[in-house]
From TrEMBL:
Region (Disordered): 42-70
List of catalytic residues: 14, 20, 129
Species name: Bombella intestini
Record bears the keyword Hydrolase: yes
Protein name (database record): protein-tyrosine-phosphatase
EC number(s) from the headed UniProt entry: 3.1.3.48
Basic and acidic residues composition-biased segments: 50-59
Domain Phosphotyrosine protein phosphatase I: 8-155
Top-level taxonomy: Bacteria, Pseudomonadati, Pseudomonadota, Alphaproteobacteria, Acetobacterales
PANTHER family from the UniProt entry: LOW MOLECULAR WEIGHT PHOSPHOTYROSINE PROTEIN PHOSPHATASE, LOW MOLECULAR WEIGHT PROTEIN TYROSINE PHOSPHATASE
Keyword field contains GTP-binding: no
Domain of life according to the entry: Bacteria
Keywords: Hydrolase, Protein phosphatase
Amino acid sequence: MTHSSPFPSFLFVCTGNICRSPLAELAMRREAEQRGLTVDIDSAGTGNWHEGDRPDPRARATAKRHGLDGNPLRARQVRTMDFDRFDHIIALDKSHLTALKKLQPSGSKARVSLLLDHVPGQQGRDVIDPYYGSEDGFETTWRDVEAGCKALAARYLDTPSSR
């Protein structure tokens, strides 16, 4: 399944798809919406532990504080077919990047990258996993995913020819 939009599509990937990647999905949806664009944006996990679950309550609370609704989202595991569906598959940390590169079929069109590599001065940095920490960690994660999504949007949504 390929998309027909002139704008690139994005899949954000973390471990269980209940903390970091849903927040990134919501942040990128906001960026597209602010530009009046309909873009294929999704999130997934490298594992299937939380398949079908809503994001972590702390992630949903963080999203809500920033005017976003995480309740409709449901966790899923990244699939091989995602490498044909999405132009950009974005890992939230280096372990996800390694897993994605192993899963990526040869000849796939998807560009696999680390989210914070798109933010000047943040290259090589992981978005921290807030799961085992306090609610404050979710705000730190939000700031990182928001910065990453703003940088992605500026590069790929403001100039569709730069796909």
